[in-house]
Fold this protein.
Amino acid sequence: MTTTVEQNAVRNALDLDLAAASTIAVAAGVVACLIVLVRTPWRFARNVVTIVHEAGHALVALLAGRRLQGITLHSDTSGVTVSRGRPSGPGMVLTTLAGYPAPALLGLGFAALVSADRLSVVLGIAAALLLGVLVMVRNAYGVLSVLLSAAVLGAVALGAGPELQAAFVYLMTWFLLFGAVRPVTELVGKRRRGAARDSDADQLARLTGVPAAVWLLVLGVLAVSCLVAGGMLLIEPAVAPATVSPG
């Protein structure tokens, strides 16, 4: 009896049998969802989302030809990325837009890599992202946040066995997917209370003339779409049927 190509990929990547891989995939999703939904763990874990959010701004700023000045990460889990260049135009619009979708798109990319038997690549990309942010961080709390994240990543990548590495990669991927949705809903709530009037959505409204509510809808649809698509890739080992081959 053999499994489908996708199932074999997951088992080879994790050095686990199909049942273990399926259990890890589903359990990690449940844990990640709880981390995002429960206030206390979310308060700490949200720093990771902020790091990716600001990395998204920074990367697109560089790709748009802007001069990146630095990244600041605050203890309230907010962040600021400063770049220089034209104060308007497509480059500024894309730079402003990049933050909120960044965790969702990174999570979707990680999910695709997991499905394609590339768990080590996921760890490598995460390490490169943290290194890039560390170079650009301009405050002590930001440096501490990035170093703590890097320490956890390094401990798992260098010292953990296959099962723990697999669980960590799945948990990190699920967390990015779920964690991309909550900041958008939080922003909607803040704006309803008359707060956060200088948010990315409001800046986009000023840059483009498109109402902030429309940009919030776009950000929400992107986050949810990535969650659905990435989630389908991650739970595939648990739902894909086994096939039988002759001999």
The two ends are 8 Å apart (CA to CA). DSSP finds twelve helices and two strands in the chain.
